[in-house]
Automatic annotation (TrEMBL):
Signal peptide: none annotated. This is Sulfotransferase. The keyword Protein biosynthesis does not apply. The keyword Oxidoreductase does not apply. Pfam families: Sulfotransfer_1. It comes from Eruca vesicaria subsp. sativa (Garden rocket). Coiled coil: none annotated. Its EC number is 2.8.2.-. It is an enzyme of class 2 (transferase). Belongs to the sulfotransferase 1 family.
Length: 333
């Protein structure tokens, strides 16, 4: 009952109630688009945002400076962010918190509270959040494209992990997610047709998909010790190999002894959608960005788009992505 009430709480980054004069001036000069519910989004540095997010990004860009040991988990919403947050937290802190199903921070708190978003949590309505208390290595998350975080990470050997997922599953997941959040008393449901139109147009929060994916892909090629490019589909198909790849990249490879004693499997079990979605901590409550924990868990897996999108919708989306990625070496399916 409490959880379903929480689902109707609008996320705080959608509002425009915490915007400074400086940000208002900037926003008035940016290209804007209304989404089909009439909410305005603004294009800043190639990506679309609600006003509060633009403010948070300005705060971040002015004040955040990466420490050498920082880890930034990046993604487009609905690409596997929650899973990556859980896995990275469990991997990085495994000496402090042994992965098990008895006592671990992930059993009593949602991954989004353990690893907070720079622009949707920490820098929303806060110019200088206190990041000193965070344990080392500090783990952050973002939905911003690489060009927008780049300057704040310059000259730092910090690590960026990007997770992407095929656009059709992202879209379907997003459509379900927004219908869970929408206040039925204020708005009608988001239709799938509207969501497809939005993705084709590109003007949705943190979109367009293909531009963001490309920004991290290119950087991962140029600077592979700085940016790791992961795919949700590969994580589903070969979870052990991908978690070991993640640990190697983060400089905390699994020892032979850990591999023999099943540490990798224990982390995967702890972070599995089956385990996380059934925890009381994830069935109730709201993350600091204002979204009910349970909204982050649905089906998981690969290919649910086939149950929702028409052939024509799928073709249009694929063609759009292929066109943008042409010559980049990045391919989906
Ligand atoms: P579906 O809606 O396709 O089920 P994000 O975390 O970026 O918001 O992405 C949410 C998507 O990841 C949802 O996909 C959700 O079910 C899935 N997901 C959440 N936790 C997961 C986990 N631990 N393992 C695999 N998938 C997970």
């Amino acid at each position: 009952m409490e959880a379903s009430k929480n689902l109707k709480t609008p996320p705080k980054f959608i509002n425009d109630d915490g915007v400074s004069q400086e940000c208002e001036n900037l926003i008035s000069s940016l290209p804007s688009e209304k989404n089909f519910t009439g909410i305005k989004l603004y294009n800043y540095q190639g990506s679309w945002y609600y006003p509060n997010t633009v403010q948070a990004i300005l705060n971040f860009q002015k004040h955040f400076r990466a420490q050498d040991t920082d880890i930034i988990l990046a993604s487009l919403p609905k690409s596997g962010t929650t899973w990556l947050k859980a896995l990275a937290f469990a991997v990085v802190h495994r000496n402090k918190y042994a992965p098990n199903l008895v006592s671990h921070p992930l059993l009593s708190d949602n991954p989004h509270n353990l690893v907070q978003f720079l622009e949707a949590d920490l820098y929303v309505k806060n110019q200088r959040p206190d990041l000193e208390e965070l344990p080392t290595p500090r783990l952050f998350a973002t939905h911003m494209p690489f060009q927008t975080i780049h300057e704040s990470l310059r000259d730092s050997p910090c690590k960026v992990v990007y997770v992407c997922r095929n656009i059709k599953d992202v879209l379907v997941s997003h459509w379900h997610f927004r219908n869970k959040l929408v206040r039925k008393d204020l708005h009608s449901n988001y239709s799938l047709d509207d969501t497809v139109d939005e993705y084709i147009k590109g003007a949705y929060a943190f979109g367009p998909f293909q531009d963001q994916v490309l920004s991290y892909w290119k950087e991962s090629l140029v600077n592979p010790t700085h940016v790791l490019f992961m795919r949700y589909e590969e994580m589903v198909e070969k979870p052990e190999a991908q978690v070991m790849r993640l640990a190697d990249f983060l400089g905390c490879s699994f020892t032979e002894e850990e591999k023999q004693s099943g540490t990798v499997e224990k982390i995967l079990e702890l972070c599995s959608i089956g385990n996380l979605s059934n925890l009381e901590a994830n069935k109730s409550g709201t993350s600091s960005c204002g979204i009910a924990h349970q909204a982050f868990f649905r089906k998981g897996g690969v290919g649910d788009w086939k149950n929702h999108l028409t052939d024509d919708m799928a073709r249009k989306l694929d063609e759009m992505v292929e066109k943008k990625l042409e010559g980049s070496g990045l391919k989906f399916e």
